[in-house]
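Need tokens for this chain, all 170 residues.
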Amino acid sequence: MSAPPIVAEGMDADAVAQVLRARQRAVAGERTLGERPSETLLAFMLGGVAHGLPIAQVRAVAMVPKVTRVPQGPAALLGLVAWRGAVVNLFDPAAPLAREVATAGAMIVLRHDAPRIALAVDALLGVVDMPRDDAVPTLSRLVEGDGERLTRVDPALLIELLLPSRLQEG
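Here are the structure tokens for all 170 residues:
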């Protein structure tokens, strides 16, 4: 990837530094909404409420395939699914997020390799840019931006609640 050169004629050192910072943020995938940093979230519905996961933590989305139940598995484990030649643990995130259980229409495969994890959700809404804050991570928190409102979910904290500690290798 090559960026156009910075022509520094008529620009002071601060202006050049600002252009370089903007390019660095663009390469890192950071965006700004106005003057505020933002992050891209995959929006989905769960129990009638819009939620979002950081897109960087999402491997893929798909329709829920046939689910094979696992006897004596964790309560939130719906079962195992075959996805792109791999076995994936399909979890229901409704209970940890205090939502009503609904019929899963789609799954979100997370970037977690050992074991592979997918979340069963009611529906996928799309990708949105929302303001990012650097607050202490919480399982979920309300974020608002550009007239949209959803609950941002921290995937690492959600995985801690869904998986027994002996399986949290990835």
